Amino acid sequence: MRFWSFWFNSFVLSSQYNPPRFVELLMLLLAIAMLAIASILPADRPYLILGLSLVVGASISILVREAIAPSPQTRITQLTASLLLIISLYQFGELFYQQ
Questions:
Q1: What is the rounded radius of gyration, in angstroms, for the C-alpha atoms of the chain?
Q2: Mean pLDDT of all residues in the chain?
Q3: Is the model's pTM score more than 0.85?
Q4: Sequence-ordered strand ranges (E) for 17-96
Q5: pLDDT at 99 over 80
Q6: In this structure, are residues 11 and 21 in contact, taking their beta carbons and an 8 Å threshold?
């Protein structure tokens, strides 16, 4: 029980310390879950669309946050967010082109 209490307290503390980063983390974790479900069940396109939408939203949020308040690893963060955004938009294009 102490283990779960420690993790819960860590999540609460991180959400209070830096709320935008915590929301971005939750969005990316949900996106990973949705994309995993979409890869297991390939006939379910809503999971794929929802996962890609979460990745696009989190990437844009990360880019805006880094533009307003740069962190020590700004270049790596911006590069990763841009790469995620480009890949997600490419997948959206492929998804809607197939229809």
A1: 16
A2: 88
A3: no
A4: none
A5: no
A6: no
